[in-house]
Automatic annotation (TrEMBL):
Family under the similarity heading: Belongs to the SusD family.
Cellular localization per UniProt: Cell outer membrane
Main location (coarse class): membrane
Chain ranges of the RagB/SusD domain: 271-531
Annotated keywords: Cell outer membrane, Membrane, Signal
Record's signal peptide: 1-18
SusD-like N-terminal domain location: 101-214
Name under which the protein is recorded: RagB/SusD family nutrient uptake outer membrane protein
Keyword ATP-binding listed: no
Organism: Chitinophaga hostae
Superkingdom of origin organism: Bacteria
InterPro entries: SusD-like_N, SusD_RagB_dom, TPR-like_helical_dom_sf
Length: 531
Protein backbone atom coordinates (compact mmCIF):
# COMPACT_ATOMS: atom_id res chain seq x y z
CA UNK A 1 0.00 0.00 0.00
CA UNK A 2 1.14 3.51 -0.68
CA UNK A 3 0.23 3.98 2.95
CA UNK A 4 0.08 7.72 2.86
CA UNK A 5 -2.47 7.86 0.07
CA UNK A 6 -4.76 8.06 3.08
CA UNK A 7 -3.56 11.59 3.70
CA UNK A 8 -6.36 12.41 6.07
CA UNK A 9 -5.17 9.62 8.33
CA UNK A 10 -1.80 11.22 8.78
CA UNK A 11 -3.12 13.76 11.23
CA UNK A 12 -2.32 11.03 13.76
CA UNK A 13 1.33 10.99 12.79
CA UNK A 14 1.66 14.75 12.60
CA UNK A 15 -0.54 15.94 15.46
CA UNK A 16 -1.04 13.19 18.00
CA UNK A 17 2.14 11.20 17.54
CA UNK A 18 4.65 13.90 16.69
CA UNK A 19 5.54 14.35 20.34
CA UNK A 20 8.10 11.54 20.35
CA UNK A 21 11.42 13.04 19.34
CA UNK A 22 14.79 11.44 18.74
CA UNK A 23 15.70 11.45 22.43
CA UNK A 24 14.78 8.13 23.99
CA UNK A 25 11.15 8.24 25.06
CA UNK A 26 11.54 11.98 25.41
CA UNK A 27 7.80 12.60 25.35
CA UNK A 28 4.77 10.46 25.96
CA UNK A 29 2.08 10.37 23.21
CA UNK A 30 -0.39 13.22 23.46
CA UNK A 31 -3.29 10.89 24.23
CA UNK A 32 -5.16 13.33 26.41
CA UNK A 33 -6.45 14.84 23.18
CA UNK A 34 -6.67 11.76 21.00
CA UNK A 35 -8.17 9.13 23.27
CA UNK A 36 -11.32 11.12 23.78
CA UNK A 37 -11.97 11.66 20.10
CA UNK A 38 -10.13 9.11 18.02
CA UNK A 39 -11.28 5.56 18.71
CA UNK A 40 -14.80 5.80 17.30
CA UNK A 41 -14.58 3.89 14.00
CA UNK A 42 -12.49 1.56 11.85
CA UNK A 43 -11.26 4.52 9.81
CA UNK A 44 -10.03 6.24 12.96
CA UNK A 45 -8.20 3.10 14.04
CA UNK A 46 -6.68 2.78 10.56
CA UNK A 47 -5.49 6.38 10.77
CA UNK A 48 -3.80 5.64 14.08
CA UNK A 49 -2.14 2.55 12.66
CA UNK A 50 -0.95 4.50 9.62
CA UNK A 51 0.75 6.82 12.06
CA UNK A 52 2.67 3.81 13.41
CA UNK A 53 3.82 2.92 9.88
CA UNK A 54 5.05 6.44 9.25
CA UNK A 55 8.86 6.37 9.56
CA UNK A 56 9.16 2.74 10.71
CA UNK A 57 12.22 2.37 8.47
CA UNK A 58 14.05 4.64 6.05
CA UNK A 59 15.32 4.34 2.51
CA UNK A 60 18.36 6.26 3.72
CA UNK A 61 19.36 3.27 5.84
CA UNK A 62 19.07 0.97 2.85
CA UNK A 63 21.24 3.02 0.52
CA UNK A 64 23.75 4.40 3.05
CA UNK A 65 24.38 1.62 5.59
CA UNK A 66 26.93 -0.17 3.43
CA UNK A 67 29.10 2.92 4.00
CA UNK A 68 29.74 1.41 7.45
CA UNK A 69 31.37 -1.55 5.69
CA UNK A 70 33.98 -2.60 3.15
CA UNK A 71 31.40 -2.20 0.36
CA UNK A 72 31.18 1.58 0.22
CA UNK A 73 32.78 4.90 1.12
CA UNK A 74 31.04 8.20 1.87
CA UNK A 75 33.25 11.13 0.92
CA UNK A 76 31.39 13.69 3.03
CA UNK A 77 32.57 13.67 6.69
CA UNK A 78 29.55 15.66 7.84
CA UNK A 79 27.25 12.81 6.80
CA UNK A 80 28.89 10.80 9.57
CA UNK A 81 29.75 7.44 7.99
CA UNK A 82 33.49 7.57 7.37
CA UNK A 83 34.29 8.81 10.90
CA UNK A 84 32.60 5.62 12.13
CA UNK A 85 34.62 3.29 9.88
CA UNK A 86 37.80 5.08 10.92
CA UNK A 87 37.00 4.10 14.50
CA UNK A 88 36.28 7.63 15.70
CA UNK A 89 32.67 7.31 16.82
CA UNK A 90 32.16 8.23 20.47
CA UNK A 91 29.12 8.47 22.74
CA UNK A 92 29.22 12.26 22.29
CA UNK A 93 29.91 12.18 18.55
CA UNK A 94 28.25 9.04 17.22
CA UNK A 95 28.29 10.17 13.61
CA UNK A 96 25.68 8.24 11.66
CA UNK A 97 25.98 5.28 14.04
CA UNK A 98 22.83 6.42 15.81
CA UNK A 99 19.71 4.28 15.74
CA UNK A 100 18.63 4.83 19.32
CA UNK A 101 15.06 5.85 18.55
CA UNK A 102 11.85 4.94 20.37
CA UNK A 103 9.38 7.03 18.37
CA UNK A 104 7.86 4.08 16.52
CA UNK A 105 7.90 1.94 19.67
CA UNK A 106 6.02 4.61 21.61
CA UNK A 107 3.46 5.03 18.82
CA UNK A 108 2.88 1.29 18.60
CA UNK A 109 2.58 0.88 22.36
CA UNK A 110 0.07 3.70 22.43
CA UNK A 111 -1.91 2.13 19.59
CA UNK A 112 -1.95 -1.28 21.27
CA UNK A 113 -3.14 0.20 24.53
CA UNK A 114 -6.08 1.96 22.90
CA UNK A 115 -7.24 -0.10 19.93
CA UNK A 116 -9.65 -2.13 22.06
CA UNK A 117 -11.66 1.07 22.55
CA UNK A 118 -12.56 1.12 18.86
CA UNK A 119 -15.89 -0.55 17.91
CA UNK A 120 -14.53 -2.59 15.01
CA UNK A 121 -14.65 -6.19 13.80
CA UNK A 122 -12.64 -8.49 16.13
CA UNK A 123 -10.78 -10.12 13.25
CA UNK A 124 -9.72 -6.73 11.88
CA UNK A 125 -8.69 -5.62 15.33
CA UNK A 126 -6.53 -8.73 15.75
CA UNK A 127 -4.82 -8.09 12.42
CA UNK A 128 -4.16 -4.44 13.23
CA UNK A 129 -2.65 -5.38 16.57
CA UNK A 130 -0.34 -7.82 14.80
CA UNK A 131 0.78 -5.09 12.39
CA UNK A 132 1.60 -2.71 15.24
CA UNK A 133 3.46 -5.42 17.16
CA UNK A 134 5.58 -6.17 14.11
CA UNK A 135 6.47 -2.51 13.57
CA UNK A 136 7.47 -2.21 17.23
CA UNK A 137 9.40 -5.46 17.18
CA UNK A 138 11.32 -4.50 14.05
CA UNK A 139 12.73 -1.50 15.95
CA UNK A 140 13.87 -3.76 18.76
CA UNK A 141 15.51 -6.08 16.25
CA UNK A 142 17.45 -3.19 14.67
CA UNK A 143 18.47 -1.58 17.97
CA UNK A 144 19.49 -4.83 19.65
CA UNK A 145 21.68 -5.63 16.64
CA UNK A 146 23.71 -2.43 16.83
CA UNK A 147 23.56 -1.72 20.59
CA UNK A 148 23.18 -5.13 22.20
CA UNK A 149 21.27 -4.54 25.43
CA UNK A 150 18.51 -1.93 25.18
CA UNK A 151 15.44 -1.12 27.31
CA UNK A 152 12.52 -3.36 26.35
CA UNK A 153 9.49 -1.13 26.91
CA UNK A 154 6.11 -2.62 26.02
CA UNK A 155 3.80 0.11 27.26
CA UNK A 156 3.65 3.88 27.09
CA UNK A 157 5.57 5.60 29.84
CA UNK A 158 5.81 9.06 31.28
CA UNK A 159 8.95 11.14 30.87
CA UNK A 160 9.91 10.48 34.48
CA UNK A 161 9.45 6.73 34.09
CA UNK A 162 11.36 6.72 30.83
CA UNK A 163 14.39 8.12 32.59
CA UNK A 164 14.46 5.20 35.04
CA UNK A 165 14.25 2.14 32.78
CA UNK A 166 17.13 -0.33 32.55
CA UNK A 167 18.44 -2.30 29.62
CA UNK A 168 17.24 -5.81 28.93
CA UNK A 169 19.89 -8.38 27.94
CA UNK A 170 20.04 -8.86 24.19
CA UNK A 171 19.31 -12.59 24.62
CA UNK A 172 16.05 -11.70 26.36
CA UNK A 173 15.09 -9.34 23.54
CA UNK A 174 15.81 -11.97 20.88
CA UNK A 175 13.72 -14.55 22.75
CA UNK A 176 10.89 -12.03 23.01
CA UNK A 177 11.06 -11.15 19.31
CA UNK A 178 10.91 -14.76 18.16
CA UNK A 179 7.95 -15.42 20.44
CA UNK A 180 6.28 -12.31 19.04
CA UNK A 181 6.75 -13.37 15.42
CA UNK A 182 5.26 -16.79 16.20
CA UNK A 183 2.33 -15.21 18.03
CA UNK A 184 1.39 -12.67 15.37
CA UNK A 185 2.08 -14.60 12.15
CA UNK A 186 -1.26 -16.39 12.17
CA UNK A 187 -3.14 -13.11 12.65
CA UNK A 188 -1.66 -11.60 9.50
CA UNK A 189 -2.88 -12.30 5.95
CA UNK A 190 -0.75 -13.72 3.16
CA UNK A 191 -1.39 -10.55 1.15
CA UNK A 192 -3.64 -7.51 0.91
CA UNK A 193 -5.91 -6.21 -1.83
CA UNK A 194 -5.72 -2.87 -3.57
CA UNK A 195 -4.48 0.13 -1.66
CA UNK A 196 -3.68 -1.94 1.41
CA UNK A 197 -0.79 -3.64 -0.38
CA UNK A 198 2.40 -3.03 1.57
CA UNK A 199 1.04 -3.64 5.04
CA UNK A 200 2.74 -6.25 7.18
CA UNK A 201 1.99 -9.78 6.02
CA UNK A 202 2.40 -13.23 7.50
CA UNK A 203 5.41 -13.70 5.25
CA UNK A 204 7.06 -10.56 6.65
CA UNK A 205 6.70 -11.86 10.21
CA UNK A 206 8.22 -15.23 9.31
CA UNK A 207 10.96 -13.62 7.22
CA UNK A 208 12.00 -11.37 10.10
CA UNK A 209 12.00 -14.43 12.36
CA UNK A 210 14.27 -16.25 9.89
CA UNK A 211 16.68 -13.32 9.83
CA UNK A 212 16.78 -13.14 13.62
CA UNK A 213 17.32 -16.89 13.86
CA UNK A 214 20.16 -16.85 11.35
CA UNK A 215 21.83 -13.84 12.95
CA UNK A 216 21.75 -15.64 16.31
CA UNK A 217 22.99 -19.04 15.11
CA UNK A 218 19.63 -20.75 15.55
CA UNK A 219 20.15 -22.77 12.41
CA UNK A 220 17.46 -25.36 13.13
CA UNK A 221 14.87 -22.65 13.64
CA UNK A 222 16.02 -20.74 10.55
CA UNK A 223 15.81 -23.83 8.35
CA UNK A 224 12.28 -24.56 9.51
CA UNK A 225 11.12 -20.97 9.06
CA UNK A 226 12.65 -20.67 5.60
CA UNK A 227 11.02 -23.94 4.57
CA UNK A 228 7.64 -22.46 5.43
CA UNK A 229 8.31 -19.43 3.24
CA UNK A 230 9.55 -21.64 0.40
CA UNK A 231 6.34 -23.71 0.44
CA UNK A 232 2.59 -23.31 -0.04
CA UNK A 233 0.56 -21.28 0.83
CA UNK A 234 3.31 -18.76 0.19
CA UNK A 235 3.95 -17.91 -3.45
CA UNK A 236 7.20 -15.98 -3.27
CA UNK A 237 9.58 -16.30 -6.18
CA UNK A 238 12.55 -14.50 -7.67
CA UNK A 239 11.83 -11.64 -10.05
CA UNK A 240 12.98 -12.61 -13.51
CA UNK A 241 15.48 -9.79 -14.12
CA UNK A 242 17.93 -8.76 -11.39
CA UNK A 243 18.90 -5.55 -13.19
CA UNK A 244 15.25 -4.40 -13.26
CA UNK A 245 14.34 -5.56 -9.74
CA UNK A 246 14.93 -2.22 -8.02
CA UNK A 247 13.06 0.01 -10.46
CA UNK A 248 9.65 1.59 -9.70
CA UNK A 249 8.06 -0.58 -12.42
CA UNK A 250 8.95 -3.68 -10.39
CA UNK A 251 7.21 -2.48 -7.21
CA UNK A 252 5.22 -5.18 -5.43
CA UNK A 253 6.64 -8.04 -7.47
CA UNK A 254 6.70 -11.65 -6.27
CA UNK A 255 10.12 -11.30 -4.63
CA UNK A 256 9.10 -8.53 -2.23
CA UNK A 257 8.42 -9.71 1.31
CA UNK A 258 8.84 -6.45 3.22
CA UNK A 259 9.45 -2.97 1.85
CA UNK A 260 9.45 0.71 2.75
CA UNK A 261 6.93 2.48 0.57
CA UNK A 262 7.11 6.05 -0.63
CA UNK A 263 4.66 8.14 -2.64
CA UNK A 264 5.94 11.04 -4.70
CA UNK A 265 5.08 14.47 -3.24
CA UNK A 266 2.84 13.18 -0.42
CA UNK A 267 5.20 10.75 1.29
CA UNK A 268 8.24 11.33 -0.86
CA UNK A 269 11.71 9.89 -0.61
CA UNK A 270 13.86 12.99 -0.91
CA UNK A 271 17.31 11.43 -0.91
CA UNK A 272 17.78 9.57 -4.17
CA UNK A 273 19.88 12.45 -5.47
CA UNK A 274 22.74 11.40 -3.20
CA UNK A 275 23.43 8.47 -5.56
CA UNK A 276 23.93 9.84 -9.11
CA UNK A 277 27.16 11.54 -10.18
CA UNK A 278 27.71 15.22 -10.83
CA UNK A 279 26.81 14.93 -14.53
CA UNK A 280 23.26 14.02 -13.48
CA UNK A 281 23.02 16.67 -10.73
CA UNK A 282 23.74 14.11 -8.03
CA UNK A 283 26.20 14.00 -5.15
CA UNK A 284 28.03 10.66 -5.52
CA UNK A 285 27.67 10.11 -1.77
CA UNK A 286 27.84 6.31 -1.88
CA UNK A 287 31.12 5.44 -3.58
CA UNK A 288 31.82 1.75 -4.16
CA UNK A 289 35.12 0.23 -3.08
CA UNK A 290 37.46 -1.85 -5.20
CA UNK A 291 37.08 -4.52 -2.55
CA UNK A 292 33.42 -4.99 -3.46
CA UNK A 293 34.14 -4.92 -7.19
CA UNK A 294 36.70 -7.70 -6.70
CA UNK A 295 34.14 -9.87 -4.89
CA UNK A 296 32.15 -10.46 -8.08
CA UNK A 297 33.06 -13.71 -9.82
CA UNK A 298 33.82 -14.11 -13.49
CA UNK A 299 30.82 -15.11 -15.56
CA UNK A 300 32.20 -18.67 -15.70
CA UNK A 301 31.74 -18.94 -11.91
CA UNK A 302 35.42 -18.67 -10.98
CA UNK A 303 36.80 -16.00 -8.65
CA UNK A 304 39.18 -13.44 -10.11
CA UNK A 305 42.14 -14.84 -8.15
CA UNK A 306 41.73 -18.23 -9.85
CA UNK A 307 44.43 -18.51 -12.56
CA UNK A 308 41.92 -20.36 -14.75
CA UNK A 309 39.25 -17.66 -14.47
CA UNK A 310 40.33 -15.63 -17.50
CA UNK A 311 40.45 -12.41 -15.44
CA UNK A 312 42.41 -9.57 -17.04
CA UNK A 313 43.42 -6.86 -14.51
CA UNK A 314 43.56 -4.15 -17.20
CA UNK A 315 40.15 -5.14 -18.56
CA UNK A 316 38.70 -5.93 -15.15
CA UNK A 317 34.98 -5.70 -15.98
CA UNK A 318 34.94 -8.05 -18.96
CA UNK A 319 33.02 -11.31 -18.54
CA UNK A 320 32.09 -10.63 -14.92
CA UNK A 321 29.01 -11.58 -12.92
CA UNK A 322 26.20 -9.49 -14.51
CA UNK A 323 25.27 -8.23 -11.05
CA UNK A 324 28.42 -6.09 -11.08
CA UNK A 325 27.16 -3.88 -13.91
CA UNK A 326 23.61 -4.01 -12.55
CA UNK A 327 24.80 -2.72 -9.16
CA UNK A 328 27.83 -0.53 -9.80
CA UNK A 329 28.41 2.36 -12.17
CA UNK A 330 32.03 1.83 -13.23
CA UNK A 331 34.41 3.33 -15.79
CA UNK A 332 33.37 2.62 -19.37
CA UNK A 333 29.83 1.46 -18.58
CA UNK A 334 27.15 2.94 -20.83
CA UNK A 335 24.55 4.75 -18.75
CA UNK A 336 22.21 7.64 -19.50
CA UNK A 337 23.26 7.63 -23.18
CA UNK A 338 27.00 8.02 -22.60
CA UNK A 339 29.95 6.08 -21.27
CA UNK A 340 30.65 6.81 -17.64
CA UNK A 341 34.05 8.43 -17.24
CA UNK A 342 35.39 9.28 -13.78
CA UNK A 343 39.03 9.10 -14.98
CA UNK A 344 39.40 12.06 -17.37
CA UNK A 345 40.19 15.42 -15.77
CA UNK A 346 37.86 17.08 -18.29
CA UNK A 347 34.93 14.80 -17.45
CA UNK A 348 32.09 16.26 -15.33
CA UNK A 349 32.45 13.11 -13.21
CA UNK A 350 36.23 13.21 -12.68
CA UNK A 351 36.90 11.41 -9.41
CA UNK A 352 38.83 14.28 -7.78
CA UNK A 353 36.12 16.88 -8.33
CA UNK A 354 33.17 17.82 -6.14
CA UNK A 355 30.04 15.64 -6.24
CA UNK A 356 32.02 13.06 -8.22
CA UNK A 357 32.78 9.43 -7.23
CA UNK A 358 36.08 9.46 -5.27
CA UNK A 359 36.74 5.77 -5.97
CA UNK A 360 35.66 5.89 -9.61
CA UNK A 361 32.61 3.76 -8.73
CA UNK A 362 29.16 4.63 -7.43
CA UNK A 363 25.88 2.83 -6.78
CA UNK A 364 23.76 2.14 -9.86
CA UNK A 365 21.34 -0.36 -8.29
CA UNK A 366 18.45 2.02 -7.62
CA UNK A 367 18.99 4.28 -10.63
CA UNK A 368 19.63 2.01 -13.65
CA UNK A 369 17.31 4.16 -15.80
CA UNK A 370 17.53 7.46 -13.97
CA UNK A 371 15.94 9.88 -16.44
CA UNK A 372 13.31 7.35 -17.53
CA UNK A 373 12.17 6.51 -14.02
CA UNK A 374 12.39 9.90 -12.27
CA UNK A 375 11.67 13.46 -13.37
CA UNK A 376 12.96 14.83 -10.05
CA UNK A 377 15.59 12.80 -8.20
CA UNK A 378 14.84 14.66 -4.97
CA UNK A 379 11.13 13.77 -5.02
CA UNK A 380 10.48 10.11 -5.80
CA UNK A 381 8.03 7.35 -4.93
CA UNK A 382 10.53 4.51 -5.11
CA UNK A 383 9.98 1.60 -2.71
CA UNK A 384 12.97 0.07 -0.91
CA UNK A 385 12.97 -3.65 -0.17
CA UNK A 386 13.93 -4.57 3.39
CA UNK A 387 13.51 -8.34 2.99
CA UNK A 388 13.17 -10.16 -0.32
CA UNK A 389 12.86 -13.79 -1.27
CA UNK A 390 16.49 -14.12 -2.38
CA UNK A 391 17.44 -13.59 1.28
CA UNK A 392 15.27 -16.50 2.33
CA UNK A 393 16.96 -18.80 -0.20
CA UNK A 394 20.47 -17.80 0.86
CA UNK A 395 19.56 -17.87 4.56
CA UNK A 396 18.25 -21.40 4.11
CA UNK A 397 21.46 -22.44 2.34
CA UNK A 398 23.63 -20.84 5.02
CA UNK A 399 21.69 -22.34 7.92
CA UNK A 400 21.77 -25.82 6.37
CA UNK A 401 25.50 -25.50 5.71
CA UNK A 402 26.34 -24.26 9.20
CA UNK A 403 24.18 -27.02 10.70
CA UNK A 404 26.18 -29.63 8.76
CA UNK A 405 23.15 -30.60 6.67
CA UNK A 406 24.53 -30.04 3.17
CA UNK A 407 22.29 -31.74 0.61
CA UNK A 408 20.88 -31.09 -2.84
CA UNK A 409 18.43 -28.50 -1.49
CA UNK A 410 21.34 -26.26 -0.45
CA UNK A 411 22.74 -26.17 -3.98
CA UNK A 412 19.28 -25.73 -5.45
CA UNK A 413 18.59 -22.67 -3.29
CA UNK A 414 21.91 -21.03 -4.21
CA UNK A 415 21.49 -21.94 -7.88
CA UNK A 416 18.14 -20.18 -8.05
CA UNK A 417 19.78 -16.93 -6.98
CA UNK A 418 22.79 -17.35 -9.24
CA UNK A 419 21.02 -18.43 -12.40
CA UNK A 420 18.46 -15.63 -12.08
CA UNK A 421 21.42 -13.24 -12.27
CA UNK A 422 22.88 -14.99 -15.33
CA UNK A 423 25.53 -16.95 -13.44
CA UNK A 424 26.20 -20.71 -13.78
CA UNK A 425 25.01 -23.16 -11.11
CA UNK A 426 27.39 -23.94 -8.26
CA UNK A 427 30.28 -26.21 -9.24
CA UNK A 428 29.55 -29.03 -6.81
CA UNK A 429 32.97 -30.59 -7.37
CA UNK A 430 34.63 -27.41 -6.10
CA UNK A 431 32.14 -26.45 -3.39
CA UNK A 432 31.81 -29.90 -1.89
CA UNK A 433 32.33 -29.29 1.82
CA UNK A 434 31.21 -26.99 4.59
CA UNK A 435 34.24 -24.67 4.50
CA UNK A 436 34.08 -24.15 0.73
CA UNK A 437 30.32 -23.64 0.75
CA UNK A 438 30.62 -21.15 3.60
CA UNK A 439 32.98 -19.00 1.50
CA UNK A 440 30.67 -19.24 -1.50
CA UNK A 441 27.51 -18.35 0.43
CA UNK A 442 29.17 -15.40 2.13
CA UNK A 443 30.39 -14.09 -1.20
CA UNK A 444 26.97 -14.70 -2.75
CA UNK A 445 25.23 -12.73 0.01
CA UNK A 446 27.66 -9.89 -0.44
CA UNK A 447 27.18 -9.42 -4.19
CA UNK A 448 23.46 -10.25 -4.25
CA UNK A 449 22.59 -7.73 -1.50
CA UNK A 450 25.26 -5.11 -2.14
CA UNK A 451 24.02 -1.61 -1.22
CA UNK A 452 20.87 -2.99 0.43
CA UNK A 453 22.01 -2.46 4.01
CA UNK A 454 22.74 -6.07 5.04
CA UNK A 455 26.54 -6.16 4.85
CA UNK A 456 27.09 -4.61 8.29
CA UNK A 457 24.97 -7.27 9.98
CA UNK A 458 26.89 -10.01 8.17
CA UNK A 459 30.28 -8.59 9.16
CA UNK A 460 29.08 -8.32 12.75
CA UNK A 461 27.76 -11.86 13.06
CA UNK A 462 30.65 -13.48 11.16
CA UNK A 463 33.13 -11.47 13.28
CA UNK A 464 35.23 -10.45 10.27
CA UNK A 465 35.42 -6.69 10.92
CA UNK A 466 39.15 -6.52 11.57
CA UNK A 467 39.78 -8.55 8.43
CA UNK A 468 37.59 -6.67 5.96
CA UNK A 469 37.09 -3.09 7.24
CA UNK A 470 40.51 -2.16 8.59
CA UNK A 471 42.94 -0.62 6.12
CA UNK A 472 43.08 1.65 3.10
CA UNK A 473 40.06 2.13 0.82
CA UNK A 474 40.97 1.82 -2.84
CA UNK A 475 39.16 2.45 -6.09
CA UNK A 476 39.56 1.95 -9.81
CA UNK A 477 42.81 1.79 -11.71
CA UNK A 478 43.65 5.11 -13.31
CA UNK A 479 43.57 5.47 -17.08
CA UNK A 480 41.15 6.57 -19.77
CA UNK A 481 37.72 5.83 -21.23
CA UNK A 482 37.04 6.15 -24.96
CA UNK A 483 34.05 8.49 -25.17
CA UNK A 484 32.78 6.85 -28.37
CA UNK A 485 33.09 3.17 -27.45
CA UNK A 486 33.63 2.97 -23.69
CA UNK A 487 36.90 1.09 -24.30
CA UNK A 488 39.26 1.21 -21.32
CA UNK A 489 42.97 1.87 -21.21
CA UNK A 490 44.02 1.28 -17.61
CA UNK A 491 47.38 1.53 -15.86
CA UNK A 492 47.97 -1.58 -13.73
CA UNK A 493 50.51 0.31 -11.61
CA UNK A 494 48.29 3.27 -10.71
CA UNK A 495 45.21 2.90 -8.53
CA UNK A 496 42.96 5.46 -6.84
CA UNK A 497 43.54 5.65 -3.07
CA UNK A 498 40.81 7.20 -0.94
CA UNK A 499 40.76 8.87 2.45
CA UNK A 500 42.56 7.90 5.62
CA UNK A 501 43.04 4.24 6.58
CA UNK A 502 40.08 2.74 8.37
CA UNK A 503 40.31 1.14 11.78
CA UNK A 504 38.37 -1.66 13.44
CA UNK A 505 38.77 -2.81 17.05
CA UNK A 506 37.02 -6.19 17.60
CA UNK A 507 36.79 -5.47 21.32
CA UNK A 508 34.71 -2.40 20.63
CA UNK A 509 33.31 -1.84 17.17
CA UNK A 510 30.87 -4.72 16.79
CA UNK A 511 28.50 -2.54 18.81
CA UNK A 512 27.78 1.15 18.47
CA UNK A 513 28.16 3.62 21.35
CA UNK A 514 24.97 4.46 23.19
CA UNK A 515 24.46 8.22 22.71
CA UNK A 516 25.74 10.08 25.75
CA UNK A 517 22.65 12.27 25.80
CA UNK A 518 20.59 9.16 26.63
CA UNK A 519 22.89 8.19 29.50
CA UNK A 520 22.78 11.76 30.78
CA UNK A 521 18.98 11.51 30.89
CA UNK A 522 18.90 8.03 32.38
CA UNK A 523 21.68 7.04 34.78
CA UNK A 524 20.47 3.42 34.71
CA UNK A 525 21.79 2.98 31.16
CA UNK A 526 25.20 1.35 30.82
CA UNK A 527 27.58 2.23 28.00
CA UNK A 528 28.84 -0.46 25.65
CA UNK A 529 32.37 -1.79 26.35
CA UNK A 530 35.42 0.35 25.62
CA UNK A 531 33.53 3.52 24.69
Amino acid sequence: MKRNKIIAGLFMATVVLAGCKNDYLSKAPLDAYSNGTLWTSASDAAAALNGCYHGWESGYNVIYNDCFTDNAYDQYPWEGYEPVTQGNATPVNTGSADRWDYKTIQKCNWFLENIDNAPIDPALKKRMKAEARFLRDYQYFAMSQVYGDVPLVLHTVSIDSANLVSQAPREEIIKFLLEEMTAIAGDLPLNYPGTDQGRITRGAALALAARIQLFNNDYTGCIATCKQLMSSPFAYNLYTDYSELFRPVAAGNQEVILDIQYLKTYNTFDGLGVLPPNSQSGQSSVAITQNLVDAYEMKNGKTIDDPASGYNPVQPYTNRDPRLDATILRPGLKWENSYFDPLDEQSPDYYQNGNCPPTGYICKKFIPHLSEDFDDIWNVGLNFMVIRYAEILLSYAEAKTEAGQVDASVYEAIDKVRTRAGMPPVDRAVYNNQAALRKLIRRERRVEFALEGLRWYDIQRWKIGAEVIKGQVTGSLKGSVDANTGALTLDPASRIMVGSPRNFDPAKHYLWPIPQKEIDLNKNLKQNPNY
